[in-house]
Fold:
Amino acid sequence: MNERKVAIIGAGFGGMTAAWDLARAGCQVTVYESADYAGGIASGFKEPHWDWSVEKFYHHWFASDDHMLRLLDELGVRDKVLFPRPYTVMYYNGKFYPFDSILHAVLYPGLGFGINKVRFGMVGLYLRMTNNWRPLEKYTVDAWMRKWAGRKVYEEMWEPMVIGKFGERYAKQVSMAWMWARLKARTTRLGTYEGGFQAFADLFAERLRGMGVDIRLNTPVTGFKPLAAGGWEVTSAGQMETFDQVLSTTSPGLLAKMAPDLPATYLDGLLSLKSMGAMVMVVSLKQQLSREGYYWFNLPKSTGFPFLALVEHTNFVSPQHFGGEHIIYMGDYLETEHEHFQMSQEQLLAKFLPSLQRINPAFSPEWVNNAWLFRTAYAQPVPLVNHSRNIPDVRTPLPGLYFASMSQVYPWDRGTNYAVEIARRAAGMMLADQSDRHG
Ligand SMILES: Cc1cc2nc3c(=O)[nH]c(=O)nc-3n(C[C@H](O)[C@H](O)[C@H](O)COP(=O)(O)OP(=O)(O)OC[C@H]3O[C@@H](n4cnc5c(N)ncnc54)[C@H](O)[C@@H]3O)c2cc1C
Structure:
């Protein structure tokens, strides 16, 4: 029996997946989590009269999320994953048009029905077909799309999404490999977990506890340092404990703060990574907002909506799970200096609600039952050109310290599926290093 003592920082889907693999290999695993719940960014919340939880930041799976689906299989809960068929729409000339299938793209009026539609289709097809993303990463989305799809197609279809996700500051610098990955991996059918993502996180944590994993909620780690004799000392709430290996699943900035003994080049690499924050207002309504039953509204900044995406969650899963209430999200990716990161929930609600009349003219603020505001500083890594050269190694230069975060899953866009993949990769390296040294 392998009796290595391993610490994992973070009980998000990454941390829990690594714990699953390491515990099954016989390691003694401790998971430190600063929050009072498991699930990290994919966690949810629940009112007493709701059967299901609502994700704080809208979440769904794609039918192509193989790593996540395999994990659900291993946990024996694959049958709890539901794949409804919700509708994503695009804004054009004051109206919304479904835009999430080839047929819808053909019918969408925004590009006309001539050469631009053909260029849009050809470029989309090429990106879906090719697996060769490396040559793409040396171009920005802006330069590559302008050249191959053309100015009209890029400015109409893709630029609003890139500006929405990365802001004016980074929009012209993002690598084309990111866009390739986004188009490659997404599917029309979207998945969720019966009971909500939090139900899955709670089940996963319980399953781990049943295997002897010590998940310590409300236990923020303040630092860890290598010991002269090998191994690591992890500090939390003034208490120190030693481990053979440590895996951090936090943001790069936090890792740099917690492990200042890392060599300067690795630390500089961590600190030079860019990311965006996210802000999401969840609102419970007395009535359905989208009369057409649309789920996801893409709202280019140029349309004047004060947020990027409107998501009617209960056009994806039934309002019956929420006591008949209709749940919407109003979300945006922002730098943390943006005023929406400082404004109160009341101020933001006053700013956001009037725009709901553009979705449904009958909307009135009296429809609102309740609202919840969530913000997180580390939400969306920004992959610049040639980003593959800047990805910090999972195996850090300090023996026994590993790092697995959203910033390292490139070219893929961050997602729970890739949190699972990179965590499994990290756990594999930790086990391999144990056998190298002790085998
Ligand atoms: C707005 C938004 C929408 C998204 N939509 C989707 C989607 O539709 N589908 C999808 O699959 N993914 C989506 N994602 C991405 C997904 O949530 C993440 O990729 C995934 O949850 C990352 O998991 P993780 O375990 O790597 O990190 P996290 O979930 O961030 O987990 C890290 C954990 O570490 C803990 N921690 C931090 N510091 C400390 C410390 N000092 N001590 C102890 N613990 C600490 C944190 O509390 C957290 O629980 C979305 C993300 C955002 C922001």
Q: What stands out?
A: The chain has a mean pLDDT of 94. The radius of gyration is 22 Å. The longest strand covers residues 368-382.
